[in-house]
Amino acid sequence: MQIKNRFGLPEALVKAVSFRRHTPGSLSATTMLNGMKNILLSDRHWDDLEEDVAERLWALFGKAGHSLLEDEGADEVTEEYLSFEMDGITITGIIDNYNLKTGMISDYKFISVTKILFQDFGDWYKQGMIYAWLLRKNGFKAKTCQFIAMIKDHKKREAKHKPSYPQIPLYVYDFDVTEEGLAEIEEYIKGKIAEYKQYRNLPDNEIPPCTAKERWDKPTKYAVKKDGRKSAVRVFDVPDDAAKLAAELGKNHYVETRPGESTRCMYYCSCCEFCNFYRDTVTEEQDELSA
Fold first, then answer.
1. What's the predicted TM-score (pTM) here?
2. pLDDT value at position 260?
3. Is residue 269 part of a domain?
4. Which one of 11, 38, 131, 250 has the fewest CB atoms closer than 10 angstroms to its CB?
């Protein structure tokens, strides 16, 4: 991975936002949350991938925060590396903080408030359970898991006027580690391993694309609007349904197309230039919309 500095930022920032690559041929707790095409293309083309310093500045906040939180308590370990081999593939994870006495796993995040508002914690649950699974496989107990999220774009005004908005710039998502949960995450890991083995020797273009969920896909929507009104009267998934309602409502009503997008492909995938799905589908859709 080449870290570019197109804006001439200080060299200290360049070094600060650089990161360690996970071992090729292994699957880490965070890597596994990605689509398999992303995992394999990132591994294969690592030396050719590029990212600009400016695009990684938010990662600096996370790195700085982790450094501040590294002091261990009497029964705690921090930045603990764990690994376990299953079916010939090494599963790895680095746990931010683990309490040997209570069996609590803690992970620190620096996030946008959007994640809290949407209560979108499926990836955190999987990550935490993979850590718990790794601990168990290495002979340690794992009873609870907590993700301590610091909200970088928290707004006091929103908190004051909206009860559903986080009231402070910190949010804790926690859950118990259950035997059922461990069994489920082991099946998930086995599935990822099987997928990895199935596709790892295929040419780039033959690896199936990431799923819509893995691409953070937002489908195109069709909003029925009325002249002079800011919000939509109603939003539809099917254009014919929107057109029908607009016709029924009559004068001053029209249909507004709200283009969908594969958000991760477009803005957050460092290996997209090597992905035929991105080239053939995502960029083509954007070209059609901008034409």
1. 0.85
2. 86
3. yes
4. 250
